[in-house]
Amino acid sequence: MAGPSIVVKDLTKTFGAFTAVDHISFDVAKGEIFGFLGPNGAGKSTTIRMLCGILRPTSGEGAVGGFSVSTHSEDIKKIIGYMSQKFTLYSDLTVGENIDFHGGIRRLPPALKAERKRWVLKMAGLEGRESALTRELSGGWKQRLALGCAILHRPEVLFLDEPTASVDPVSRRDFWDLIYELSGQGTTTFITSHYMDEVERCHRIAIIYAGAIIALGSPRELKVRFAGTESASLEQVFVAAIRQARTA
Ligand SMILES: Nc1ncnc2c1ncn2[C@@H]1O[C@H](COP(=O)(O)OP(=O)(O)OP(=O)(O)O)[C@@H](O)[C@H]1O
Ligand SMILES: [Mg+2]
Question: What is the span of the domain harbouring residue 71?
């Protein structure tokens, strides 16, 4: 059986005297949808940036697809898709041009590039908007395009940092249908979100607070552990876990 897609052991990031990520450890299985939850400034984006090979850890280990974040970050970049919290596509390019640009970066052969482009336009609901200027898209449509560009090369592991911020509820559901579809095909998804209905859909969740992981398990396990019943909401779990961490 294949090993986990993501392995994290004591991963730490400090900025000067400040510890943003503090000895975190967890594994994510292949095909798993892993939710990363936490208040603003908890260390979610910093963790993702380390796992994507963009930011060098201060100490500890991380591996994605078997590649170490410390020594093989270039290999990691080839097998992942990353949707950053900040919109990073070119506003002055059209929808189609942004997709072409990403196909170029990923060095997709021309025939495959055309096929994947059609697939992305369809899956992101962007058919017919190919020649729209990216800056003229609404926030939610921009997010769809960003997701499309992140999955164009069919990455093994997908890192999504608040992908559905400002996306309407119906489109968010479409987003999640796609994530499930990709998961069914073996794609591992590491996702952050502040929407509890979304987090509920993850196979497992980690809650990070002040750089440390304070809870890890399936939504059902965490409900029982932190609120005493499976019928609790994840919001209750979140609040209880953070209160517990504050008083610890
Ligand atoms: N380059 C940096 N230099 C100094 N401090 C940083 C740097 N990057 C992040 N931080 C700090 O590290 C902490 C964690 O930031 P991070 O962006 O990981 O939080 P987050 O959990 O993603 O929050 P949000 O929900 O607001 O996106 C914050 O206090 C932030 O100010
Ligand atoms: Mg963030």
Answer: 6-247
